[in-house]
Amino acid sequence: MKVTLDQHLHLILEEVRQQYNMHSLLLADHHGLAVSHAGEIAHAGMSAIAPELIRVGEHAKRLGEYESITCVALVLEDSHLMVIKDLDVGGEPFVLVMDTASVPKGMLKLLADLSERIADAMALER
After folding, report:
1. Which of 8, 29, 58, 75 is the most exposed place for a label (fewest CB within 10 A)?
2. pTM score over 0.70
């Protein structure tokens, strides 16, 4: 039985979610439309606002004259930490949203590995 792209992405996100004890992981396109997710999404509108938060982070980077940003973090009143990262997959922009209680150890490596796995899964479909 062939695994669809949706199933493959879900398996990747679910594995990482469990490994790092996250509430949920969400992959959205640059318009804020959900592509795949794992776990229970506590804040349904997060996919819609995530691209805008990335734009705010990029603007802050320019104003602060920083070379780059790793991700954008948003702390919500219910103790959810939303870690938002822009991804480039095959030249197309996506946004990854991690709903977690704290920043996972080894965040840069986690983001790089997850980005690569998502890109590999999407490349298989092309």
Report:
1. 75
2. yes
